[in-house]
Design brief:
With 383 residues, the protein is mainly beta. 6% of the residues lie in helices and 37% in strands. The protein has two domains: 135 residues, no CATH class; 156 residues, Neuraminidase (6 Propeller), CATH 2.120.10. The strands form eight sheets. Strands 3-4-29-28-27 form a five-stranded antiparallel sheet, with no helix packed on it.
Length: 383
C-alpha cells in the first residue's frame, strides 16, 4: 500500500499509464554505486531552478517555495529514480528507504547517512520490498518483501477497473540485522502483511488482510501477541505511533454506501484497492477512541506525528481540483486547526521528523531532472 509509488505519481501528475509501464530510457545504475562525494552536473528540470554540480546532501535552498516558512534550509539527498519512505534511525544518524533506480526493477531497501552520502542496499535484491523501519536500538530493521514467493517482481495490477493499488498477498514482514543479514519472518500468514512501523517500546504496528479485510494490528517482533485494532469495513493502514506511544495515526477509507462497499470488496477479492479517497485518523494504542482528523473527499496519506504529539503532518491533494498535486499539511488532534506546510506544484509526501525534532525528511518531485522522479529531501525545521 505504500508501494506502487511510480503508478501513484504518474497518475497523479497526469502522465498516463504508458509512462508508468516501464523503466526510464537511461540507466542510473545501482543506488549503492553513487558516492555522496561524487559530483554530477545535473540541470534541474524544475522551472526556475539552476544547473548545479549535485552531490548527496547538497544544500538547495532555491527549491524552498514561497510560503514554506517552516524550512530554514533544504538539502537534497538523492538524485534520480524513485526514492521514498525515508525514515530515521532512532539515533538520527541514518535513513532507511525504498529505492527503484532509473533502470527500473522492483523497490529494494537501502540505508544512507542522514546528512547525505552513499546508499547501501540492505534487502537481498529479490521480489519487491516496502515499508522499512529501524527497531529501537538501531541494531535491527524490519521491512516487507515478496521474495519468498518469487524472486521476480510481482505482476502489475489491472487498470481496466480504474486507478487501483495492488495488495500483494505475497508480502510478509521480516526482521533482519541492521546490515540486512539474517532476515527472519515476523509474519508468515496467508494474505497481505506490510506497512509495518514500530514504537519505542518495541511494539510493531502493521496492516494485514489475515482476517479478510485490510485492518491494523500490533504484534511483537517475533510475530507473537497479535492484536487487531480496527474492524470497520474498508481499508485501514499506514500506521505510526505517537512519540509517547499512546496514540496511533493512520489513513483509512471506509465505504459509506452499499455500492461503494460492494466495489471495495470486489476489488479486495482480486488483490486491489481504490485509493482515491483516504482520510487521516487517530486512535489509542489499544484501538479505542477512534476519531477522524480529515473529511475533505481527497486522498490524504502518509501521516506522522509532530514531535509535540499534538499534531499530525500528512500529504494530501485537497487543494488541487484535478487531484494531481500533493502537498504536506498539518492538523491538530481535534481536526480543527489545519496548516499547509509545502507549496510545491507537483508532489510532496512521506514526511517524518528526526528524533531531535530539528529536521523533517520527505519525498518530493521538486527540482527533478525528469518529470515524475521522486527524491529525498531533508529540511531544517522551524516551528
Amino acid at each position: 500500500m505504500r508501494n506502487g509509488l511510480r503508478t501513484w505519481l504518474c497518475v497523479a501528475l497526469g502522465l498516463g499509464m504508458a509512462a508508468c509501464s516501464g523503466p526510464a530510457n537511461e540507466s542510473q545504475g545501482t543506488a549503492g554505486e553513487k558516492s555522496g562525494a561524487e559530483a554530477q552536473t545535473t540541470p534541474a528540470g524544475d522551472a526556475g531552478a539552476v544547473a548545479r554540480d549535485w552531490h548527496s546532501g547538497l544544500r538547495v535552498d532555491d527549491l524552498i517555495r514561497e510560503g514554506e516558512r517552516h524550512f530554514r534550509a533544504l538539502y537534497q539527498l538523492t538524485n534520480g529514480g524513485e526514492n521514498a519512505e525515508a525514515y530515521f534511525s532512532w539515533d538520527g544518524t541514518r535513513l532507511i528507504l525504498q529505492v527503484t533506480p532509473r533502470d527500473g526493477g522492483c523497490d529494494q531497501i537501502f540505508v544512507m547517512p542522514t546528512q547525505g552520502g552513499s546508499m547501501t542496499r540492505l534487502s537481498n535484491g529479490e521480489g519487491r520490498c516496502t515499508c522499512a523501519y529501524f527497531l529501537p536500538g538501531d541494531q535491527k530493521i524490519l521491512y516487507s518483501s515478496t521474495y519468498e514467493t518469487s524472486i521476480e517482481c510481482p505482476p502489475k495490477p489491472d487498470y481496466s477497473r480504474g486507478y487501483v493499488w495492488p495488495i500483494y498477498a505475497s508480502y510478509e514482514i521480516y526482521v533482519a540485522n541492521a546490515d540486512g543479514s539474517d532476515p527472519r519472518n515476523a509474519t508468515h500468514s496467508p494474505g497481505y502483511d506490510a506497512e509495518a512501523t514500530i514504537g519505542a517500546d518495541g511494539t510493531v504496528v502493521f496492516t494485514s488482510t489475515r482476517d479478510g479485510d485490510l485492518d491494523i494490528y500490533t504484534m511483537q517482533t517475533d510475530g507473537s501477541d497479535v492484536r487487531r485494532l480496527t474492524d470497520e469495513p474498508g481499508y485501514d493502514g499506514g500506521p505510526f505511533f505517537s512519540p509517547d506511544g499512546q496514540l496511533i495515526c493512520y489513513r483509512a477509507a471506509h465505504p459509506t454506501d452499499e455500492a461503494e462497499l460492494a466495489d471495495y470488496r470486489s476489488l479486495l477479492a482480486d488483490g486491489l484497492i481504490r485509493p482515491g479517497k483516504l482520510d487521516i485518523r487517530v486512535m489509542n494504542r489499544d484501538g479505542s477512541n477512534k476519531r477522524r482528523l480529515t473529511d475533505n473527499g481527497a486522498a490524504n496519506f502518509g501521516p506522522y506525528f509532530h514531535p509535540s504529539g499534538t499534531k499530525v503532518i500528512f500529504a494530501s491533494n485537497m487543494e488541487d481540483p484535478r487531484g494531481r498535486n500533493f502537498d504536506l499539511y498539518m492538523v491538530d488532534l481535534d481536526g480543527k486547526e489545519l496548516e499547509r506546510i509545502t507549496y510545491e506544484d507537483t508532489f510532496d509526501g512521506f514526511p517524518m521528523y528526526s528524533p531531535d525534532a530539528k529536521y523533517l525528511v520527505f519525498a518530493s518531485n521538486r527540482g527533478s531532472e525528469r518529470e515524475g522522479e521522486t527524491n529525498i529531501f531533508l529540511a531544517e525545521w522551524v516551528d
